[in-house]
Structure formats: C-alpha cells, structure tokens
C-alpha cells in the first residue's frame, strides 16, 4: 500500500469543492433532473428536511444528520420510473416528489472529519460508502506528514465530541491540532470520482500499480448485470441493484458460445439525456434497439405498434399526435437511420459502450473513466473488441490501489462464463 494514503487526509481532497446544498425528498422529479445534470457520478444525495426548527444555538449532530439522509438518486432511477405505464403522462410524472423514486439506503453516505486519513476514507468506500460528507472549514492549511504518522490512523475528534467529554478535552491539549476553524452546518460532498481524480495526480507514488494490467491485479468484476439484445429494454430495470448502476446489453457471437457487448443501459449513459424520450424508448423498444439508437426505420418491430402515443398537447381536433423516437433525443448520435436486425453488426456511434481490454493498465482505465465522466469501464478479451469479460468500476480501482502486492493474481488468469447468473 502506497504511503501517500497515510500522508494525506480527506481535507486535502476538499480544497475548491463547492458547498453542498441539500436536495430534499419533497422536491419534484423535474428538479431532480436539473440537479443530476450538475452532479458527479450521475446521482444526487436526497435528504429529509429537519424535523426540528432552526432554533438559536441548536446544532445538529452527525447522528441526526445521518438519519436525515435518504439515499442517492441517479439518472437511471428516474428514467426507469418515468418508463412505467402510469408515468408516461409527462406533466403528472415530472411533478411527483422524488421520495417516490429514490431507493432508501442511508449507508451510502457517511460524515467524516477533514482530518480523517485518506486510507480510512478509502476503506469506507470499499465497504459501499459512495459519498463522504466533510465539514467545511473557514481556514484549512492541510495536514503534515508528521501529524499523520504520529496518530497512525486515529480519527480527529470533532468539536461536538470533544466538547461533550472533559477527559477528551483535557487529552486534546497535549496533541497537535489541525489549522482549521469549523463552519457549522456547512459541508462539501466528496465522491469516489474525486478520489480517482486525486489518484491520477499521484500515479508516481503508486508505482508500479498504474502500469500493471487489470487482469494481473485481479480486479475484473464478472458479477455484472446484463440483458440480451432481443429482450424488451424495460427488462433492464428489473435486474437487481448493483454497483456500478449499469446493465450490459449482449448478443451472441456467431459460434453462439460467447457474448459480445453492443451497448449498455446505465446511469452514466443517461446522465444528461432527454429523460422523457429515454423513458418512452425504454418502455417501448427492445434492448438492442434502445442502445443502438436507431431512428424510425426498423424491421424487427413495427413502429405502428407503439408510435401513436398520447401525450399532453398531442390531441388536437380529435387526432392523436405520433411521438417520434430519435436516438439524438436520448443522447445518442448515429450519422444516419439504420435498419435493426438483431444478430448482425450495426453502427453504434455515441451509444457504443466504454470498453478496455484485459491487458489494459490500471492507469489507462482510470484515465478513461475520468475523461468520459463514467462510473465504470466494460472489459473485453485481449484479442477481441467486444467479447465481454467483466467490468471495472470505482470499487475495483479502490481495491487495487490498497491491495498488498502479494495479493495479485497471475496475468494468465482465465475468465469463464459471464455476468450475473441470478437474473430473477
């Protein structure tokens, strides 16, 4: 494990981070779409409002704040919700509170002190924490190497804990302290993307890990969700929740013994899309049609079956306005319309999934994720561009950089099977 994780603390990663503005569960889906477009990792933390009034002198402690945290809402959650038959009337659905959309899980966020060692923060994220809530400081001068070694991983006591115990207060007088002044009720939110961005800046300190292949590191996750291209796209929303929030769309190769990836249905792909158009497509198209971004020339399924869709403003003079699906409207951009025939090679354009090979280095995968603002990269065989092996996400990268060298697996590791077999 690199010493850089012992010499740095969470506060070092929060420099320049904006103050977090709480997004409440009473806000509408429409508001959530705007907020997600400005977020990291394609999702936003959702909070309950304080049950107690803002009385003078009242300070909310970390436990109370943790209980108010509901969960993280991402773009795939919203598109899946809008794709429900009862939600396709856009005016009604966009005004629904996000409390009906977000999946409650308050273990995804944890409040930590700015003086928490980076290695401790990484361990939390490896255990499933996706956001770290860090108190903002009026003055922050960082932590010294000497301080981190002296305390050997012990957490700094925040103001509310130290003031509640005279013993701790007395003990703290004999300790060096951080050069900071806490600002109550002001926080910033640290994501796993922020951590990967930091790691890119200290690649030299992580040597030789950055140039080691992901297969040698043994971090290729084969337990991913998938759906076959010939199935309705809406089936993707019925897969069990996973991290990353992505479902691979697969089709069999010519020998029918392997599967290749032709696209994905994921939070990162839907991050800044037209949510209503994406929801309509998810509800009405096959998975292969959805990810290929085909226009209105399809042979495998007639558009007349579902293009005549009523929506606000669509009925005029007793007629129903047809709702045309365009790949561009959900973030895809093929150069021209194409006919879809499941099982043959098709143009994928921007809908092509982000992939790497088993021989790709850890540094290359990290750079791919950051440059595309993606939460994951799909892994294909070394001698193939699309035969899927697995996926690498934030969790796998954090595992790699904190793993002891002796734990690495041989580079000739074979990969058999694919995906999450339990797709019930």
TrEMBL record:
Residue ranges constituting the CBS domain according to the UniProt record: 346-408
GO terms for cellular component: cytoplasm; nucleus
Region (Disordered): 159-182
Keywords of the record: CBS domain, Repeat
Domain of life assignment: Eukaryota
Compositional bias of kind Polar residues: 171-182
Gene3D superfamilies, sorted: CBS-domain
Designated name of the protein: CBS domain-containing protein
Organism: Arabidopsis arenosa
UniProt lineage: Eukaryota, Viridiplantae, Streptophyta, Embryophyta, Tracheophyta
């Amino acid at each position: 494990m690199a010493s850089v994780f012992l010499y740095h603390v969470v506060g070092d990663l929060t420099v320049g981070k904006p103050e977090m503005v709480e997004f409440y569960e009473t806000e509408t889906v429409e508001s959530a779409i705007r907020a997600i477009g400005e977020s990291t990792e394609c999702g936003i933390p959702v909070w309950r409002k304080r049950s107690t009034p803002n009385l003078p002198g009242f300070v909310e402690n970390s436990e109370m704040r943790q209980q108010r945290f509901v969960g993280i809402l991402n773009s795939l959650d919203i598109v899946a919700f809008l794709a429900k038959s009862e939600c396709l009337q856009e005016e009604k659905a966009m005004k629904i509170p996000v409390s009906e959309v977000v999946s409650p899980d308050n273990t995804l966020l944890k409040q930590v002190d700015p003086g928490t060692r980076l290695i401790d923060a990484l361990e939390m994220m490896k255990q499933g924490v996706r956001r770290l809530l860090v108190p903002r400081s009026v003055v922050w001068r960082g932590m010294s190497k000497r301080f981190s070694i002296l305390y050997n991983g012990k957490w700094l006591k925040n103001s509310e804990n130290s003031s509640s115990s005279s013993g701790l207060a007395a003990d703290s007088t004999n300790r060096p302290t951080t050069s900071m002044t806490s600002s109550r009720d002001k926080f910033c939110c640290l994501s796993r993307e922020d951590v990967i961005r930091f790691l890119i800046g200290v690649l030299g300190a992580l040597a030789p890990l950055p140039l080691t292949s992901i297969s040698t590191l043994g971090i290729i996750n084969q337990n991913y969700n998938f759906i076959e291209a010939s199935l309705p796209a809406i089936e993707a929303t019925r897969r069990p929740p996973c991290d990353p929030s992505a479902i691979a769309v697969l089709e069999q190769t010519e020998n029918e013994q392997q599967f290749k990836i032709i696209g994905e249905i994921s939070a990162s792909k839907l991050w800044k899309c037209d949510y209503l158009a994406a929801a309509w497509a998810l509800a009405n198209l096959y998975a292969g049609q959805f990810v290929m971004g085909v226009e209105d020339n399809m042979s495998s399924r007639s558009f007349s079956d579902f293009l005549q869709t009523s929506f606000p403003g669509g009925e005029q003079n007793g007629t129903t306005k047809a709702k045309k699906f365009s790949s561009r409207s959900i973030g895809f951009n093929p150069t021209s319309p194409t006919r879809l025939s499941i099982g043959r090679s098709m143009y994928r354009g921007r809908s092509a999934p982000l992939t790497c090979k088993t021989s790709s280095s850890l540094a290359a995968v990290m750079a791919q994720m950051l440059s595309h603002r993606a939460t994951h990269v799909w892994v294909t065989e070394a001698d193939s561009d699309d035969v899927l092996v697995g996926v690498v996400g934030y969790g796998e990268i954090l595992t790699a950089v904190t793993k002891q060298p002796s734990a690495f697996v041989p580079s000739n590791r074979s990969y058999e099977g694919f995906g999450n077999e339990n797709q019930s």
